């Protein structure tokens, strides 16, 4: 599904990501961890074509993403993402946030809108209905008319995921979904992510620096430190990997 | 059926009010009403760019000038050359005027596209700078083309525009833009305003959306220009200076960025205010109009920085809470 092939990026002299190799299979739940400043978000921005790699190749759903504009990643590679600092359309309603993301379902043009033909009402009703059903799955339908910025924090995170799902992705990138959440919210999120994977049959790549969260969630984990991949494996393997322990806890503690 | 009723009532309203205004209102007030209508079209269309899409265009009068001069060239120079001149029956005249309006709108839209594509790719204040410059370029170019009057102005434009046209088109443009921004595709404009990165992440090209808003706004500005040209039957390049662009921005900001009701209200309010202050000059001997005009703007912005309507619409008061989408 996702193939990151020896990718590097430099900002001036700073090598933010160096020679990273990463792979996510269909319907797999993979974690990407690392201490602060390890280059996780940079790698995410490379995968979503916000940055262009200095060298290396990234393939999503069989397409080399170098050929695309950033906005085509969602349409042609069927990849959607969320952001570390929530990025909702704050002044739009909950339903509208999902509707904007449902743009691939729009089957009518300017004249249909300007003249308000029957087709306009039929299509809009259908798209609205589908968006509402999607909100229902995540229990956000009661708040469909509220402005996104007025939602509680947890619901904002959830809505961002729902909006990403509205683009019908085959792979979902979650950038620190548990950031700023307390224990019970984190536990709920854990179940939510598992549920999404089952229900929508998609692959998920999660960035987190909360070790516990990622260990309980992912089948396979990649560890980044100082822009380099230092380990790869199952949660158990990662937990016992001396390189990972050193990266997280520092040099002296391990003797 | 519903369509027929809508069109029927639209034509009826325009016919009745157009007739009442032309028959019973003194000429001077008719002119003010016409300017109100033209300014409504300009403010509502600029709101699409500056309010709903969150970009900052400062050259709306430039697009209006393109439409105005295009229409004047068509009706005064091109059509007579094709044999349409002198007296003609009402039907042919209005049909020709309709064609002229469309072509003027389209040419302003095309210019909007050419200006928009390079400048809307940039973020921040670049659009304001580019459109500001563009407005001046248009004005200076017209000033130097002798064939369309140059600095003397364009004279002898047929008086095809009237209150029926102005009334009809200001209603029509407002309704069309209202339908666009309330539709699902129209929400993309507001998505760009709220967060460009997020808009890109769900598969939408922000440049494409911004250009769409810009071209649509330019089209309506062009139509407003054509109405203007054929109402006064005289055009002068200095009309379309930066001052006019700024007045339209003032209407949008005062009414509320992202509220069409606000733009309509503010366009009428400011146009009337500017005219109502005109007699003041006779008493004082100096032009106090702009002083008072700007004082009103300052006071309103201090007391209500979000504009008269903020982001709400008149229709919001009638339906407090919308019905659920699945049984809407």
Question: Can you characterise this structure?
Answer:
The complex is a heterodimer of chains A (255) and B (328). Chain A has 255 residues and is α/β, with parallel strands linked by helices. Helix content of chain A is 38%, strand content 24%. Chain A is built from ten helices and ten strands. Chain A has three domains: 1-25 and 57-79, no CATH class; 82-171 and 178-183, Rossmann fold (3-Layer(aba) Sandwich); 211-219 and 228-255, no CATH class. Chain B has 13 helices and two strands, in the order H-H-H-H-H-E-H-H-H-H-E-H-H-H-H. In chain B, helix 3 (60-81) packs across helix 9 and helix 10 packs across helix 11 (260-276). In chain B, 70% of the residues lie in helices and 1% in strands. Chain B has helices spanning 2-24, 27-52, 60-81, 90-119, 126-143, 163-182, 187-194, 196-201, 206-232, 242-255, 260-276, 280-284, 289-303, and strands spanning 154-155, 234-235. A two-stranded antiparallel ribbon of chain B has the order 1-2. Chain B is mostly helical and 328 residues long. The model of chain B is unreliable at 323-328 (pLDDT under 50).
**Helix residue percentage of chain A:** 25-40%
> What class do helices, strands and sheet pairing of chain A give?
alpha/beta
Number of strands of chain A: 10
What would CATH call the homologous superfamily of the largest domain in chain A? P-loop containing nucleotide triphosphate hydrolases
User: Structural class of the helices, strands and pairings of chain B?
Assistant: mainly alpha
Estimated share of beta-strand residues of chain A: 15-25%
Shape of chain B: globular
DSSP strand count of chain B: 2
Give the rounded overall mean pLDDT of chain B: 90
CATH class group of chain B: Mainly Alpha
Number of domains of chain A: 3
- Rg of chain B is 20 Å
> What fraction of residues of chain B sit in β-strands?
under 5%
List the helices and strands of chain A in order: EEEHEEHEHHHHEHEHEEHH
């Amino acid at each position: 599904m996702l193939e990151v092939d020896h990718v590097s990026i430099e900002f001036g002299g700073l090598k933010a990501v160096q020679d990273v190799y990463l792979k996510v299979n269909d319907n797999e739940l993979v974690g990407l961890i690392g201490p602060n400043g390890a280059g996780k978000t940079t790698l995410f921005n490379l995968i979503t074509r916000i940055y262009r790699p200095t060298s290396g190749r990234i393939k999503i759903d069989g397409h080399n993403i170098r050929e695309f504009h950033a906005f085509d990643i969602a349409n042609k590679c069927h990849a959607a993402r969320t952001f570390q600092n929530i990025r909702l359309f704050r002044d739009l309603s909950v339903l509208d946030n999902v509707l904007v993301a449902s743009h691939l379902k729009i089957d009518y043009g300017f004249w249909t809108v300007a003249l308000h033909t029957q087709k306009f009402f039929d299509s809009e009703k259908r798209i609205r209905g589908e968006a509402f059903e999607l909100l229902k799955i995540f229990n956000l339908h009661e708040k469909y008319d509220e402005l996104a910025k007025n939602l509680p924090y947890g619901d904002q995170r959830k809505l961002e995921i729902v909006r990403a799902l509205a683009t019908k992705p085959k792979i979902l990138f979650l950038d620190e979904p548990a950031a700023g959440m307390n224990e019970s919210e984190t536990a709920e999120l854990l179940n939510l992510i598992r549920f999404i994977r089952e229900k929508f049959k998609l692959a998920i790549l999660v960035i987190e620096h909360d070790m516990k969260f990622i260990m309980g969630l992912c089948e396979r984990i990649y560890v980044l430190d100082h822009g380099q991949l230092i380990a790869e494996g199952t949660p158990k393997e990662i937990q016992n990997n001396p390189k990972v322990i050193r990266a997280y806890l520092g040099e002296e503690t391990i003797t | 059926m519903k369509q027929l009723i809508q069109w029927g009532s639209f034509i009826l309203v325009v016919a009745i009010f157009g007739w009442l205004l032309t028959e019973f209102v003194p000429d001077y007030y008719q002119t003010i009403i016409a300017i109100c209508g033209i300014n409504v079209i300009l403010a509502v269309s600029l709101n699409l760019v500056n309010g709903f899409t969150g970009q900052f265009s400062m050259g709306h009068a430039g697009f209006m000038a393109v439409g105005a001069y295009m229409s004047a060239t068509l009706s005064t120079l091109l059509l007579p050359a094709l044999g349409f001149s002198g007296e003609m029956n009402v039907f042919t005249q209005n049909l020709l005027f309709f064609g002229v309006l469309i072509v003027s709108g389209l040419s302003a839209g095309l210019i909007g596209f050419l200006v928009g594509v390079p400048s809307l790719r940039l973020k921040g204040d670049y659009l304001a700078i580019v459109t500001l410059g563009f407005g001046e370029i248009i004005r200076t170019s017209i000033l130097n083309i002798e064939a369309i009057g140059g600095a003397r102005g364009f004279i002898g434009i047929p008086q095809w525009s009237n209150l029926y046209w102005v009334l009809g088109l200001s209603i029509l443009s407002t309704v069309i833009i209202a339908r666009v921004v309330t539709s699902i595709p129209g929400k993309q404009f507001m998505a760009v305003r709220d967060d460009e990165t997020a808009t890109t992440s769900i598969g939408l090209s922000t440049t494409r959306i911004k250009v769409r808003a810009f071209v649509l706004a330019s089209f309506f500005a062009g139509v407003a220009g054509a109405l203007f040209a054929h109402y006064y039957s005289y055009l002068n390049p200095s009309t379309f200076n930066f001052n006019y662009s700024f007045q339209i921005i003032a209407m949008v900001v005062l009414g509320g960025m992202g509220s069409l009701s606000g733009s309509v209200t503010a366009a009428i309010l400011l146009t009337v205010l500017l005219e109502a202050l005109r007699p003041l000059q006779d008493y004082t001997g100096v032009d106090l109009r702009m002083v008072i005009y700007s004082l009103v703007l300052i006071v309103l912005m201090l007391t209500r920085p979000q504009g008269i309507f903020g982001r709400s619409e008149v229709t919001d008061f009638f339906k407090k809470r919308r019905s659920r989408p699945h049984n809407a």
